[in-house]
């Protein structure tokens, strides 16, 4: 992310993905320009965004006129129309937009965007599908995997971790995971240390190798 400095973002495509992203970025106090060639979508989201425009962004002249070329950050939120997604991404690259995020609807589409030079490619449906797989098959409440096989999960405390201080239950050496913090129902989040005693019903934030974290979350 861009911290501190220039908090402006251009979002091309105001479908479900683009509009949700644009509105969430607005809530973070950023300036958001949303563009879509569909006038109804622009009308629907214009009140919620700093600027909104109806335009076909496959035309590089349009990007210049709208000032998109001057933005420090742009998101290409076009999926279904792969040709448009590719053209808009290459236009933004040609215009020298320093950071470009692009959404892809398939791995092949993602590979093309990466080859073009998009700085970040996201595959929302694939990524969400993989994430939800961990939630539906286990007791995890949330699951985030990092590139290098590490994960951070939110899970209900297994019995083996409760009742004694973490220093005694030795979760890290026995299970290869680190309990980062605890959220007790109705209480604030607290960081965990060797003296922390996990209670039954606590929600834990746990990190470690994906396989270790998964195994820990499956314990009784
Ligand atoms: P989602 O699944 O998030 O709704 P879509 O791929 O269906 O994503 O939506 C992409 C949006 O991008 C649509 O609203 C479409 O009108 C818009 N779009 C497609 N091509 C262009 C283009 N060349 N310029 C501007 N907007 C475009």
UniProtKB/TrEMBL annotation:
<feature type="domain" description="RCK N-terminal">
    <location>
        <begin position="6"/>
        <end position="123"/>
    </location>
</feature>
<dbReference type="Pfam" id="PF02254">
    <property type="entry name" value="TrkA_N"/>
</dbReference>
<dbReference type="InterPro" id="IPR003148">
    <property type="entry name" value="RCK_N"/>
</dbReference>
<dbReference type="InterPro" id="IPR050721">
    <property type="entry name" value="Trk_Ktr_HKT_K-transport"/>
</dbReference>
<dbReference type="InterPro" id="IPR036721">
    <property type="entry name" value="RCK_C_sf"/>
</dbReference>
<dbReference type="InterPro" id="IPR006037">
    <property type="entry name" value="RCK_C"/>
</dbReference>
<dbReference type="Pfam" id="PF02080">
    <property type="entry name" value="TrkA_C"/>
</dbReference>
<protein>
    <submittedName>
        <fullName>TrkA family potassium uptake protein</fullName>
    </submittedName>
</protein>
<dbReference type="InterPro" id="IPR036291">
    <property type="entry name" value="NAD(P)-bd_dom_sf"/>
</dbReference>
<feature type="domain" description="RCK C-terminal">
    <location>
        <begin position="138"/>
        <end position="220"/>
    </location>
</feature>
């Amino acid at each position: 992310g861009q911290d501190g400095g220039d908090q402006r973002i251009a979002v091309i495509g105001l479908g479900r993905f683009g509009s949700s992203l644009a509105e969430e970025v607005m809530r973070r106090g950023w300036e958001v320009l949303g563009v879509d060639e569909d006038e109804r979508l622009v009308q629907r989201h214009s009140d919620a965004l700093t600027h909104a425009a109806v335009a076909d962004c496959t035309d590089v002249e349009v990007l210049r006129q709208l000032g998109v070329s001057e933005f420090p950050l742009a998101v290409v939120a076009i999926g279904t129309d792969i040709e448009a997604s590719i053209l808009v991404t290459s236009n933004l690259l040609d215009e020298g937009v320093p950071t470009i995020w692009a959404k892809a609807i398939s791995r092949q589409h993602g590979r093309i965007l990466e080859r073009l030079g998009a700085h970040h490619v996201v595959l929302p449906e694939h990524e969400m599908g993989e994430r939800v797989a961990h939630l539906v098959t286990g007791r995890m409440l949330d699951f985030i995997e990092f590139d290098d096989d590490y994960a951070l999960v939110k899970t209900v405390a297994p019995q083996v971790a409760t009742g004694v201080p973490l220093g005694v239950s030795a979760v890290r050496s026995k299970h290869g995971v680190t309990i980062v913090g605890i959220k007790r129902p109705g209480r604030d989040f607290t960081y965990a240390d060797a003296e922390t005693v996990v209670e039954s019903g606590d929600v834990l934030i746990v990190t470690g190798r994906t396989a270790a974290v998964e195994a820990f979350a499956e314990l009784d």
